[in-house]
From TrEMBL:
<dbReference type="Pfam" id="PF08002">
    <property type="entry name" value="DUF1697"/>
</dbReference>
<dbReference type="InterPro" id="IPR012545">
    <property type="entry name" value="DUF1697"/>
</dbReference>
<protein>
    <recommendedName>
        <fullName>DUF1697 domain-containing protein</fullName>
    </recommendedName>
</protein>
């Protein structure tokens, strides 16, 4: 039975590193037996259908990425239902600019003591809410001038993560419904 998965890659096509053409990835995934493969923009957003479990799909995807493209990049995999639930749980007002509201997907739940240290830092108008392995954040000045970047959060919380703004999340959810 085919199951749809959404995959977010961390650190591809950023600052000239881990360059990966989405069209090449799409073809490689299709050739490997994944179906209905779609990508959205160049930052590593992939939708595909798979006969494998979520874990096996993630493992096969990572293996293909390394073998075909020599890229080892953390990936975060969700079903459309899981991503929709995470999006629905976003604590920030829906009337905020969607390109300034982000979901950061984390590879682990941060330790409480690290979260408390982060809470003690003044981040000005930037806000965040941690919900298990997803950190929601709002950057009123946008990502370009932000203190709360993914790299900053990774260092403070000792986790790996990747973030997408609400525009991207909504588009991916829309593509998954097609």
């Amino acid at each position: 039975m085919l199951k749809t998965y959404i995959i977010f890659l961390r650190g591809v096509n950023v600052s000239g590193k881990n360059l990966l053409k989405m069209a090449d990835l799409q073809k490689a995934l299709s050739d490997a037996g994944f179906e209905h493969v779609k990508t959205y923009i160049q930052s590593g957003n992939i939708l595909l259908d798979s006969t494998y479990s979520k874990t096996e799909t993630a493992n096969r995807f990572a293996q293909l990425l390394e073998e075909k493209f020599q890229i080892k990049a953390p990936l975060f995999i969700y079903t459309p239902e899981e991503l929709k639930k995470l999006n629905d749980e976003n604590p920030f007002k829906k009337d905020l600019e969607p390109n300034k509201v982000f979901l950061a997907f984390l590879d682990a739940k941060p330790l409480d003591e690290l979260t408390k240290k982060l809470d003690a830092i003044n981040h000005g108008d930037e806000q965040y809410v941690l919900n298990d392995k997803v950190l929601y954040f709002y950057l009123p000045e946008g990502m370009g001038k932000a203190k709360l970047t993914v790299n900053y959060l990774e260092k403070k919380l000792a986790v790996l993560g990747t973030a997408r703004n609400l525009n991207t999340i909504e588009k991916i959810l829309s593509l998954s419904a097609d």
